[in-house]
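INFO  loader      accepted 1 record
INFO  loader      residues=143
INFO  predictor   begin
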Amino acid sequence: MTMIENDLNILARTLYGEGRGEYNKADGGLAALIAIGNVIMNRVKKGGWFGKSIAEVCQKPWQFSCWNTGDPNLTVIQNIPKDDAIFKICQEVATALIANKWPDLTKGCDHYYSRLLSNPPKWALNRQPKLRLGLHQFYQLGV
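INFO  predictor   done
INFO  writer      dumping C-alpha cells
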C-alpha cells in the first residue's frame, strides 16, 4: 500500500469511527463527515506536534478516540464490512478532502468533541466553539 493509499484508508476509517452516527441525522449528514475531515486536514497543514501525514495525525495517541486502545470503536474501524454504505461515503469524502475538493466548513478549526461526553475536555473549558454541527462542537485553538 502506498503512503497515499494508506492515508486515504486511515482518513476514511477515522471519519467512519468518529462520525458514522452523524451521517443519518438531519443536523449532521455529509457536512458532519466533511467537518471532521476538515479538522484532520487542518492539523496536517499545521504539522508540528500534530504530525506530518494524515495517518500520523489520525493515529496520534489520544487525539481521535476511535484509534485509542480499549475504545470500542477501534474494533469497529478495524472490521468494517466491505459493503458498508456509510464507509463507502467516508471513502468518497476522504478522497475529496485529500484532493482539496471540499470547503473548510470549520473555517480553520483544529479540535472538536462530541457533546455526548459527560464532561467537556479541559482544552474546551471557557472557549466558544466556532461551529456546532450535529453532536460535535468545533474549535480553533491554534496549537
